Amino acid sequence: MTTSNIVQTVNETLRTEMRRNGNVVLLGEDIGKDGGVFRATAGLQNEFGQQRVIDTPIAEEGIIGMAIGMAMNGLEPVVEIQFLDFIYPGFNQIVSELAKLRYRSGGHFPAHVVIRAPSGGGIRGGLYHSQSTEAYFTHTPGLFVATPSTPTDTMGLMRTAMRGSDPVMFLEPKRIYRTVKEELPADEEFTIPFGKAKVLKEGTGVTLVSWGAMVHTCKAAVELASKENVSVELIDMRTLMPFDIETILASVRKTGRVVIAHEATKVSGFGGEIAAQIAERAIDSLQAPIVRLGGFDAPFPYALENTYLPSPERILRAIRKAASY
Amino acid sequence: MLQVIRADGDFDPKVEPDLSHEDLLKMHRYMLTVRRLNEKGMSLQRQGRIGFFMESTGQEACQIGMSYTLTPIDWAFPSYRDPGTCLVRGVPLSALFDQMMGNSADEAKGRQMPVHWGFSKWKIVSLSSPIAAKLPHAVGVAYAAKFRGEKSVVLASLGEGATSQGEFHAAMNFAGVYKTPVVFFCENNQYAISLPTRRQTASESIAIKAEAYGFEGVQIDGNDILAVYKATKSAVDKARSGGGPSLIEAITYRIGGHSTSDDASVYRSAEEVELWKRRDPITRFTAYLMKKGIISDQENKKFIEQIDAEMSAVVKEREKIPPPAASTLFTDVYSEMPWHLREEAEEFMRDEGENGPQGEAYEKEPGSF
Ligand SMILES: Cc1ncc(C[n+]2csc(CCOP(=O)(O)OP(=O)(O)O)c2C)c(N)n1
User: Fold this and answer.
1) What residue ranges of chain A have pLDDT lower than 50?
2) From CA A194, how far away is CA A157, in angstroms rounded?
3) What are the chain B neighbours of A62 within 8 Å (beta carbons)?
4) Would you identify the CATH topology of the domain B21-318?
5) What's the predicted TM-score (pTM) here?
6) Chain A residues near residue B118 by CB distance under 8 angstroms
7) Which of B55, B88, B25, B369 is closest to B187 using CA atoms?
8) Are residues B93 and A65 in contact, defined by beta-carbon separation less than 8 angstroms?
9) What is the value of ipTM here, to two decimals?
10) Closest CA to B109 of B346, B325, B333
11) Looking only at Cα atoms, what is the longest distance across chain A?
12) Range(s) of chain B covered by CATH 3.40.50.970
C-alpha cells in the first residue's frame, strides 16, 4: 500500500490533470526547476515544459492578472501563490477582476483560474507566512473557497476546482502538508463536490465545526472531551464557499450546542457567518450560546505561535463551556 | 515624434501609410461618428437620460487610427475613451447605446456604468473601472495566443495616468519577459482627472519607459490619424511576426472634462484648451482629405448630417428598450447559482417580482460625483 501526504497529492493531482487536459498551465514563483518552495510542483516542468509550467517574475498582480487573460483566451491556469500572506499585491486582480468578470461581462468573459495558496500557521513563519485570511475571499461574490484537511479531500476538491469553470481559491493547510498520509482513491473520476461538509465523527453532545489544519487539532480536542464523557460531533467544512449549512443544521438539531473553531482571527472570521446562519435558521434548537474560537485578534506572532493558535486544550474548554451551559 | 499630416493638412507623401481612399473615408467617418457620439453622450447625461458619461473629444484620431490596424482575429482592451475602437471592430452603434443606457439588450445586462465597453463577439473585453487592472489580462490573452501558435495580436489602450499603477509595471514586465504579441497604446491626453502628466511621472516621456522592459517605445502625434495608424500598424505587424511587445505614446489632449462629474476649469486654463482646439484631429484630417481631393466641403457636410440622423434614430429606438429584469441581478455570479444566492433570489422574486423597486435616481452635484 502506498500512501501520499497532502503536498504529494497536490503534485500528483496537478500532474494527472495536466495529462488529461492540455489547456492546463501552471504559473508561479520558483515553481519550475525548483518545484516551488514546498515542492508542490516538483518535476512538473520536466514533464510539461516551460510553456506550461511557467516560472514568473515576483509580482502577484502580474501572475494573477496574466492568468486571467490566459483564461479568457482558452487556457485553464492554476496559479501558485508562494504563501497566502503574499497574495495582497494581487488582491485587486482577485477581487475586482477575477471574481467579477463573469458578472460584469454578462457571462461572456468568465475566467476559470484556480489559485493555490499555502495557508495557516504553525511552521515558524511569523507574521507573514502564517495567516488564515479565507474570510477576505468568502466575502467576495464570484469566488469559491476550498480548504482541505486530508490528502483524499485535497485530490477530490482540487479536481473539482480544476474541472469546473469558476474561480477557486484553493487554500492548502501548509502545517499538515506532510503530516497526514493516506492511500488515495485510484478512480480518475473520483471528485468531491463543493458545498458538502464531512462529518468526521458522530456525536450527540456538542457540534464542533472546523476546517483546514485546525480539523486535526479539533480531533485531539474531541479525544480529550470523550475522556470527560462529552460526545462531540466533528464537522469538516471542506469548502467555505459554497458552505454546507444543512450538515451543520442537522447536527445542531441533534446536539443543541455548537463550537466553531478556526485559525483565523475571530472577529469577522468565517465562524461568525456560520454562527449567524445557525441563529437565523435553528435558534429554537440551541440549548447554549454558540461558542466561537479563533486565533486571537492580533497579528500572527513568531515566538508565541503555538500560544496564538487554538490548542486542543483551548478547544476543550470551549467544548466544556458549550456542554455545561 | 512621428507625424504624417501637419497641422494645416499638408503632408509628406514619403511617410504616408498605404491606405486606399475608401479606407481614408471610412476612418474619417468613424472619427465624425465618435465626435457626434461624444456630443450625444454629454447631452443625454445632462438631460438625465443616462447616468454618467466620459468624453473623448480630441482623441478621435487615437481611437480610430490604432484600431484600424486590427484584424478580426485580434483582441482589444479599449479604454472608456475608446468608443471608436468598438465601432472600427464592427460593433453597431445601437450596441454602444445599449451599454450606455444599461438596458436589457446590453450584453452585460446593464451591470456596468456607461462607457465600460465590452463586446464579446468582437473580442473586446468588458472593461473594469480600476485603472490599469486590465493590462496584465492583455498579456495573458497574448500568451495564450502565442501558446497555441495563433497569429492574433492584442491591443491594450491606456491613459498616461495608468502608467503609475503597479499593474502597468507588471504587465510591461511580463510582456517583455514572455515576448507576448501585445501592443500597449498610451493616449497621453495630458491629464488624469486633474493631474497633469508632469506630476504623474518624472520620466522625460511615457514612451521611454518601454526601454526599461526591454522593448521599443515610440512617441507619436496623437492628433494625426495617419501617424497613429502607421505607428500602430508597424507595432502590430511586429507583434504578429513574433517580434514581441511595443509601447506607443500618442500625444493628444482631452478637450472636455474628465467625466460628467468633473469641472475642468478648476485645474486648467481656457487658453490651453483653445490652443488644443486649434489642433483638432478631425479638422486636420478633413484638410488632408480635401487637399488630396478625396472629399469636398459639401460631401463632408452631408456625412455629418447622415451621422446625425442615424444617431438620433438609434437613440430614439434604443430608449424604448426596457431595463434588465430584476432576476438578472442574481445570475452570472458563478456558472451555477449557489444555494445561498438562490435563496436570496427566490425570496426577492416572491416578494417583489421582476419589476422590483427602481428607487429614486441619485441627484448629482454639478461638476462633482
Ligand atoms: C485604481 C483606480 N484608482 C482611481 C480611479 C479613479 N479614476 C478614474 S479615471 C482616473 C484618471 C485616469 O487617468 P488616465 O489613465 O490618464 O486616463 P484618462 O482619464 O486621461 O483617459 C482616475 C484617477 C480608478 N478608476 N481606478
Assistant:
1) none
2) 7
3) 136, 139, 167, 170-171, 173-174
4) Rossmann fold (3.40.50)
5) 0.96
6) 104-106, 108-109
7) B55
8) no
9) 0.95
10) B325
11) 60
12) 21-318
